[in-house]
Amino acid sequence: MAGITSALLLLVLSTIVWQQTVRGGCVPEYAFYPPSYSNNALHDTFLDIQQSLNVLIEQQEAFNDTSFALEVSSSKETLFKFYHTMLRATKDSPTETINGSTMFRIESNTKLFTALGILKQEALGHLDLDDSILRYVQDLEADKTSFDWERITIRSLLAHMTGLPDTLADDDLLLLLANPTEYGLPPVSDKTLSTLPPCGVFSNYTEPCTEQDLLQSLPQYGPVLPPQVEPSYSNIGYDLLGLVISNVTGMNYRDYISSSILQPLGLNNTSFTPPAQSAAKLPYPSAWSQETGLGGLYSSSSDMILFLRYCLLNHDNITPSLDWFSPKAYSAGQHSFLGYTWEIFRTSSILPDSERVVTFVTKGGGGTEYYSYSIILPAYDLVVFTAAAGELPALNDVFAAVRDKLVLGAERVAQQDLKTTYAGTYSALGCRNSSSLCSQNPPGLNSSITLAQSSSRSLSISAWISNSTDALQALLSVSSSQSGQTGNVYFQFTPMFRAISGPSSDGSNRTGEIWRFINVIDDTEVPTNATNVWDDYCASNLDPLRYGGVSVNEVVFWRDTETGLIEEIQIPAFQVAMGREKA
Ligand SMILES: *[C@@H]1O[C@H](CO)[C@@H](O)[C@H](O)[C@H]1NC(C)=O
Ligand SMILES: *[C@@H]1O[C@H](CO)[C@@H](O)[C@H](O)[C@H]1NC(C)=O
Ligand SMILES: *[C@@H]1O[C@H](CO)[C@@H](O)[C@H](O)[C@H]1NC(C)=O
Ligand SMILES: *[C@@H]1O[C@H](CO)[C@@H](O)[C@H](O)[C@H]1NC(C)=O
Ligand SMILES: *[C@@H]1O[C@H](CO)[C@@H](O)[C@H](O)[C@H]1NC(C)=O
Ligand SMILES: *[C@@H]1O[C@H](CO)[C@@H](O)[C@H](O)[C@H]1NC(C)=O
Ligand SMILES: *[C@@H]1O[C@H](CO)[C@@H](O)[C@H](O)[C@H]1NC(C)=O
Ligand SMILES: *[C@@H]1O[C@H](CO)[C@@H](O)[C@H](O)[C@H]1NC(C)=O
Ligand SMILES: *[C@@H]1O[C@H](CO)[C@@H](O)[C@H](O)[C@H]1NC(C)=O
Ligand SMILES: *[C@@H]1O[C@H](CO)[C@@H](O)[C@H](O)[C@H]1NC(C)=O
Ligand SMILES: *[C@@H]1O[C@H](CO)[C@@H](O)[C@H](O)[C@H]1NC(C)=O
């Protein structure tokens, strides 16, 4: 009796967690393994994107003065390229034809390289993310009155959680406005002028800012916020990370980034020194690129794609301390987060039939005349890089023409794969050529399961008979009655990213994937209103219920070695294996 009571209790607790889900707000983020894009699978999507870009260029005057490069790639291969060369050339910007090797200033995308450099040093044990900056940049100790350096850690610097000011000698209206008094601003005294750092904007970008300029001017600026309170973007923070890198490696920041990242990845068109005018689109040469960790790199779209592929493939194994794509702080708004320099955006508004969230891991960069975006879609195994020389609105239009269409196209490919590879009816009787798993079923066992694919529910269970019993109805009604909710509950599959191998019926080696099915409430018909705003309050538990110590919702999908299709399903808690029935 005690056993049953605690099992019921467990069920009550888990279903409460499971079913606080209205309008499908807690749909698992992963409904499939990241798809592959063989055989031109995204052909129509790219045709559509290309047409949109052509229309933009034709209709928007900004593109007469803006060059851009755009590339889309999976983790394996480049899938789409589009280059546009500005029509109007200026004296300093000869109209070269833009291609994948054309170099752009990537501005703040440089911070990705700085952050990666720090994480690599952390993985080597040369620094700790929670160390104070003082440990590596002792000179800061001279000024303990303006800043709480003890609490400014490497981690907080990476995620802009330091409260440090943004820039040292950039974005200053004093030099950006021809006549500041026309804006109601008072004149700046000569005394004040003499205290400003003699570099960056204050030198009309003829002098780069040095470490000495930084250390001297910081106390004068003072903090924006105390450390660790809320994020505020800080270029200065990345300059300090550049100094940390110099300190722990004993190398110049730029030499370290080159030897530890650019060279090993073969990024031959990426450098801190301005390339020849013919290799780039440089409206004017500038000393701004000489600064440290914040924004000095020149790179090409083909190189940045190689770099982003590396990020996509390695984000979870750069250091055991963290996943590089994980968020660290809330940004403003409901959907934005700051990571270890990644700007993370999550939305459920793109997929028309589902409340499933799509995560964009991004980094934007922008300075005078140069703008760039890096975008990674981990769930779809896609990366995008686009850079422009010219006007920012033009790049925003390019970005907008790509991002949602790409998600919708990739989603179609993934759903089609769920349909052909996984969906279907599997039964104990379908195990005609018994594999070792199937041969463990009792003879004549009446068990079968039907997996359905749809754009709203992805892969879900539409029928399930176990030993002549309607297991689907039984499990669904237990879940629903225990949670006290009467929504339209269904079981949706989500992959566990664990592969196993085992013998197939002909004795050869086959691979299996472990998935789980999770309660989701499909209330897409119910309009949202003020009383159900809490319905997408989600806790994650992929292992809510066991039977005899075995997870009830674990399913192993076994692949046919030849066709690549799922040939057999094993449900460990039900001690059953079922073969795919011929369509
Ligand atoms: C771009 O410049 C060309 C040549 O000056 C002009 O004919 C065309 O109308 C311009 N395009 C747009 C969209 O303004
Ligand atoms: C890109 O253009 C440059 C200059 O026109 C040329 O040297 C280079 O080979 C081109 N690269 C590619 C990948 O086409
Ligand atoms: C790193 O910083 C520490 C503390 O400021 C200092 O003792 C050490 O000499 C520095 N190392 C290098 C290589 O700059
Ligand atoms: C700054 O440099 C630009 C380009 O080199 C030049 O046109 C401008 O006159 C300079 N401004 C000042 C205030 O010196
Ligand atoms: C970069 O150059 C090196 C040495 O010339 C070469 O081995 C490598 O393949 C190049 N990388 C790319 C992406 O072309
Ligand atoms: C870009 O990289 C390619 C391949 O390594 C190389 O041949 C070319 O010279 C590089 N271009 C520039 C401008 O560095
Ligand atoms: C069972 O296996 C035999 C020999 O391997 C094969 O000829 C037959 O087509 C298979 N039957 C089914 C239903 O897969
Ligand atoms: C099938 O159900 C019967 C009772 O209805 C039970 O005796 C038997 O052990 C079950 N077999 C399996 C494999 O679950
Ligand atoms: C299997 O069980 C289901 C549900 O009890 C029943 O409808 C069906 O007829 C059974 N099939 C066989 C072959 O016994
Ligand atoms: C079966 O294949 C997997 C993955 O390809 C491999 O890791 C495993 O060693 C293989 N097992 C045997 C017995 O060949
Ligand atoms: C708002 O939602 C609640 C719970 O879903 C429902 O009971 C109520 O009728 C709804 N009210 C309106 C005005 O739609």
From TrEMBL:
UniProt domain Beta-lactamase-like ARB-00930-like C-terminal: residue ranges: 414-581
InterPro entries in the record: ARB_00930-like_C (IPR058664), Beta-lactam-related (IPR001466), Beta-lactam/transpept-like (IPR012338), Beta-lactamase-like_AB/R (IPR051478)
Pfam families noted in UniProt: ARB_00930_C, Beta-lactamase
Signal sequence coordinates: 1-19
Occurrences of domain Beta-lactamase-related (ranges): 97-395
Gene3D superfamilies, alphabetized: DD-peptidase/beta-lactamase superfamily
Keyword list, A-Z: Signal
SUPFAM superfamilies named among the record's database cross-references: beta-lactamase/transpeptidase-like (SSF56601)
Transmembrane segments: none
Domain of life: Eukaryota
Stored PANTHER family: BETA-LACTAMASE-LIKE 1-RELATED, PENICILLIN-BINDING PROTEIN
Similarity-based family: Belongs to the beta-lactamase family.
Protein name: Uncharacterized protein
Organism: Cladophialophora psammophila CBS 110553
